[in-house]
Amino acid sequence: MTWPTAVNDQITDAVTQSNVKVVGEAPAMAMGTVYQTMAHSTGILFENAVAAAQQQNALSQAASNQGVMQIYSLDTTATAGASEKIGQTGVADNLTSLLTVLNAFKRPQQPGGI
Question: Which of 2, 24, 26 minimizes the C-alpha distance to 12?
Fold first, then answer.
């Protein structure tokens, strides 16, 4: 810049100080924008979580309702027959049979641990 200029020195100083102020505030403004964006994204995240929980709750209520409707629609004789079949072929009987078969395939242990 050449000395004497056609612009008043006070105007030059004011413009320079204004530019320095803008450049100095830029990182703080950028971080403020980042924090605001993160807060907004977190808010949307929680909104989606609440919506998913509400939909899951509605789905479980509908499934429970369908189960109750099926229970009430069964004939009592058919229900008694199904209960008897379930009682005769329970899980405990199946596990006992499986244990018996597995024990049949065991090799007898020889003396000396071989």
Answer: 2
Highest mean pLDDT: which of 2-6, 16-20, 64-68, 78-82?
A: 64-68
AA letter at 34: V
Query: Which residues have C-beta within 8 Å of that of residue 12, sequence separation ≥ 6?
Result: 5
Spatial CA neighbour of 65 closest among 53, 75, 73: 73
The per-type count for the chain, helices as H runs and strands as E runs, is 3, 0
Show the DSSP H helices in the chain as ranges.
Answer: 9-73, 76-88, 91-104
Sign of the Cα pseudo-torsion (46, 47, 50, 51, in order): negative
CA distance 42 to 38: 6
* pTM score of the predicted model: 0.45
